[in-house]
Structures are given as C-alpha cells and as structure tokens.
C-alpha cells in the first residue's frame, strides 16, 4: 500500500511535536500499548514485533512505573495544600497510569475530580486550553478545572466524566446516541485543527447510565493544518491506521477517522442486532478502509448524517 502525497504538501516527522516522551500505558495488553515516534522507528514491513533495543527500553519503563505508583506526584506539599483547601485527598492511582489519580471528598468519600500530572514539554495542556476557549455544544474535550505548577511539570485538575464507553449499561439502546456524540466530538477537534491520535474506548468517558460523551487524554494530540502529512507510530495497538503501523507517510486526520471506525465496530460488537447497528457498521467499514484515500475526508455533522430523515440514505453507504 502506497500513500500518494500531493505535490507541495507539508510533511512532518511527528517527533517534532514531542519534547517529552509519553508514558507507556501497557506493554502486555495489545490494545493498550501506546507508542510514540520519539521511541519507535517507522517500520517498512507488517510485523508487529518490536526491535530488541526498543523492547528493552519499554521493559525498563515498565519496571520504573511499577516501582513508582504515582504517589510521588500527588503527595508533594504543593499538591496537598491545594487539595486541602477543597477538603479533598488523593484516593487512588493505577500502576499503569502513574500520572493520573482520583480525588476524593473527605466527608462523603465521593470521587470529585481527576488529577493529572503533565510533564514539562508536553503540549497536552496547551491543546486542552485551546479547545476550552471554544465555547460550543459540539466540544466534547475534557475541560480543565484548574492547574498549577509543580516540580517537573503542571498538575491539572479535571472533572470526573464517567467510565469507559464500553462499560455503558445498555449499549444497544444508546448505540446511536454514543456514535453521534463521538462523530460530533472528533469533527469538532478536526475543525479546530487538533488531531487526537489516541482515540479508543479507554479515552472516551460517559456516565454508565448514558449521558454526555467526553474525550480525555490529549497527551498524544497535535495541532496542525489540514493537508499536512506525518510519519511515525503514535497511539495504541489495534487502533492505529495501517499506513501508520507500516511506517508510511499518513494524513493524521484520516488516522483519527480510522480509530473512530474501530471504536464503532467494538461498540457494535456489544450491541444486539438493530437498524442502528447495521447503519453504523456500514459507516465504520468506510472509516476503517485500509486504503486511506478511500476513507471520508471528514465526519459529516449530526444534522446531516445522523438525523432520522437521512437514515435510509445511510443504509447504502
């Protein structure tokens, strides 16, 4: 598979946008293994094996993460002082996500917020701030509540937005609504020149009984103009577009659309047979086309693509 780059198109190595190496979420679960162009060289074959030196580097990172459960970030005096003002404390961190912690209210023991440590050099907070300035009902990006400087980076307080979208109690009933929100959310990011590059169920939060979908974890996100091509593996195994996996130049916007398609397929896999499921699988098949030139150039807005009136049209997609 070859990717034809238009004459005059801008080509960027994605490592240009990475001043700090992102955390490795998981090395053993294929779906959760995140890689970045800074660490992983582009591949020209289709094997999924990592080179020995890269594999050793990732194993070293895993050992470091297991040794540090993240509490060193969150139990510093400057963090505890801020939390004390609100009557909060750090209740839980996960060894696979040492830079994220749940914040608990002291008197009720309820989860109130999420704390995330963003290393110096990361563009995550810049991109979130850029999106927060866009006051729109179509904006589903997580919105920081507050942030303050700590040693080595910035501590960001984020609202608790629910659970993994795959944990939704009745996916069949809410499948259409979830898909509408996902497409609306990604379309909004792209309209504002943000590519997420790590779209997967773990980064899509929603209340377990249904509600507003929220996109989280903009650690891999990049702000760029349409028509820019990139090279380098970024994201999570199982959700990366094939042209990215194979070390080819790729359109990052279309790479996001591929990830969206994979998410929809997984949601449909947990849904009972319905017209919604049939239509969404047809759309997903377009999004996950292995030939990027045959994928849509963008996600059509709700009012055109997902209204009841146009459902018969979608059946032929």
UniProtKB/TrEMBL annotation:
Transferase keyword on record: yes
Alphabetic keyword roster: ATP-binding, Kinase, Nucleotide-binding, Transferase
Keyword ATP-binding appears in the UniProt entry: yes
Superkingdom as given in the UniProt entry: Eukaryota
One Pfam family of this chain: Pkinase
GO (cellular component) term, any one: cytosol
Gene3D superfamilies in the record: Transferase(Phosphotransferase) domain 1 (1.10.510.10)
GO function terms (MF aspect): ATP binding; eukaryotic translation initiation factor 2alpha kinase activity
Domain Protein kinase: 1-317
Family of the protein in this entry: Belongs to the protein kinase superfamily. Ser/Thr protein kinase family. GCN2 subfamily.
PANTHER family in UniProt: EIF-2-ALPHA KINASE GCN2, EUKARYOTIC TRANSLATION INITIATION FACTOR 2-ALPHA KINASE EIF2-ALPHA KINASE -RELATED
The protein's name in its UniProt record: Protein kinase domain-containing protein
Protein's organism: Clathrus columnatus
Species classification: Eukaryota, Fungi, Dikarya, Basidiomycota, Agaricomycotina
């Amino acid at each position: 598979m070859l990717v034809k780059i238009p004459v005059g198109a801008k080509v960027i190595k994605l490592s240009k946008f990475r001043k700090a190496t992102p955390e490795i979420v998981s090395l053993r679960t294929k779906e959760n293994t995140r890689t970045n162009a800074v660490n992983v060289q582009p591949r020209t074959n289709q094997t999924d094996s990592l080179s020995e030196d890269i594999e050793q580097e990732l194993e070293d990172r895993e050992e470091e993460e297991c040794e540090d459960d993240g509490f060193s970030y969150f139990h510093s005096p400057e963090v505890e002082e801020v939390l004390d003002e609100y009557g909060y404390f750090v209740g839980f961190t996960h060894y696979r996500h040492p830079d994220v912690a749940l914040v608990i209210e002291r008197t009720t023991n309820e989860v109130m917020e999420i704390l995330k440590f963003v290393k110096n050099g990361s563009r995550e907070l810049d991109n979130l701030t850029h999106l927060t300035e866009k006051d729109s009902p179509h904006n589903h990006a997580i919105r920081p509540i507050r942030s303050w400087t700590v040693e080595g980076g910035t501590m960001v307080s984020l609202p608790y937005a629910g659970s993994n979208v795959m944990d939704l109690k009745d996916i069949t009933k809410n499948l259409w609504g979830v898909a509408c929100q996902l497409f609306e959310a990604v379309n909004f990011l792209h309209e504002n020149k943000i590519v997420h590059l790590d779209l997967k169920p773990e980064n899509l939060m929603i209340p377990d009984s249904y509600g507003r979908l929220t996109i989280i974890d903009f650690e891999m996100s990049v702000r760029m103009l349409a028509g820019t091509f990139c090279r380098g593996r970024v994201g999570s195994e199982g959700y990366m577009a094939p042209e990215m996996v194979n070390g080819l130049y790729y359109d990052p916007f279309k790479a996001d659309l591929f990830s969206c398609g994979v998410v929809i397929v997984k949601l449909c896999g947990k849904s009972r047979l319905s017209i919604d499921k049939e239509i969404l699988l047809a759309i997903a098949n377009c999004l996950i086309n292995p030939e990027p030139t045959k994928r849509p150039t963008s996600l059509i807005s709700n009012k055109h693509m997902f209204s009841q009136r146009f459902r018969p049209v979608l059946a032929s997609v």
